[in-house]
């Protein structure tokens, strides 16, 4: 049977005191989708509310993987996503959280999302996230009461990158928050391709890292 991947996406469309328009960053959902599809995996989408998510960075819609995602089944699946509370996540071999600023709005505290991530990680399925997607890992506690992030080697959108992108719009600095819960944070040069696998947890730094994050997840799934 082919491996099954569940993308969990944000429903937020605005962020910050000036209601900056946001959503799921196109490259961060499209590039991994294409990688998983080419690996022959079954891909499904869930969101916290089940509503249609918004896409950010549509100016890149003609890039090859982005165009394929938009014109083929990917965007159609994402629009018709399932509400996370109605999904049996235990049937999936991996879950993946793409970024964009949107996850900073609805994912830091969502209790169901935290439970899903903890359960997925503890049954040794793969947990992946890229850019602002690792905000989903905040406040995830394992069955022994420790934070999932404690002593994990991870990356995400960095403070340096945020300071030159959306610092006035985000509620907190993601790199700092992840570190405060015990993560061993690894930053590469701003906007460079950088992803890390630590056991069955895979994280990527920014949009340029989305494809590499998926490739590391595939390597683990095929091992």
UniProtKB/TrEMBL annotation:
Ranges for domain DJ-1/PfpI: 28-218
GO term, biological process aspect, one: methylglyoxal catabolic process to D-lactate via S-lactoyl-glutathione
Annotated SUPFAM superfamilies: Class I glutamine amidotransferase-like (SSF52317)
GO (cellular component) term, any one: cytoplasm
Keywords attached to this entry: Hydrolase, Lyase, Protease, Stress response
Pfam families according to UniProt: DJ-1_PfpI
Molecular function in Gene Ontology: glyoxalase III activity; peptidase activity
Family per similarity comment: Belongs to the peptidase C56 family. HSP31-like subfamily.
PANTHER family: GLUTATHIONE-INDEPENDENT GLYOXALASE HSP31-RELATED, PROTEIN/NUCLEIC ACID DEGLYCASE DJ-1-RELATED
Name of protein: Putative intracellular protease/amidase
Organism: Pedobacter antarcticus
């Amino acid at each position: 049977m082919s491996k099954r991947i569940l993308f969990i996406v944000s429903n937020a469309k605005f962020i910050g005191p000036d209601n900056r328009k946001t959503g799921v960053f196109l490259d961060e959902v499209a590039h991994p989708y294409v990688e998983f599809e080419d690996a022959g995996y079954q891909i499904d989408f869930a969101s916290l509310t089940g509503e249609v998510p918004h896409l950010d960075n549509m100016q890149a819609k003609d890039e090859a993987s982005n165009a394929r995602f938009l014109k083929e089944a990917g965007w159609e699946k994402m629009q018709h996503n399932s509400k996370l509370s109605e999904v049996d996540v235990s049937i999936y071999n991996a879950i993946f959280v793409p970024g964009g600023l949107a996850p900073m709005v609805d994912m830091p505290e969502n209790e169901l999302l935290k439970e899903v991530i903890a359960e997925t990680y503890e049954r040794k399925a793969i947990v992946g996230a890229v850019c602002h997607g690792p905000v989903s890992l905040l406040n995830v506690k394992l069955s022994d009461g420790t934070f999932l992030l404690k002593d994990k080697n991870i990356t995400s959108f960095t403070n340096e990158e945020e300071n030159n992108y959306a610092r006035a719009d985000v509620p907190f600095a993601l790199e700092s928050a992840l570190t405060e819960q015990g993560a061993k944070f690894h930053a590469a040069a701003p906007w460079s391709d950088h992803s890390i696998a630590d056991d069955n947890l895979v994280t990527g730094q920014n949009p340029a890292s989305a494809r590499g994050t998926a490739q590391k997840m595939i390597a683990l799934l095929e091992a």
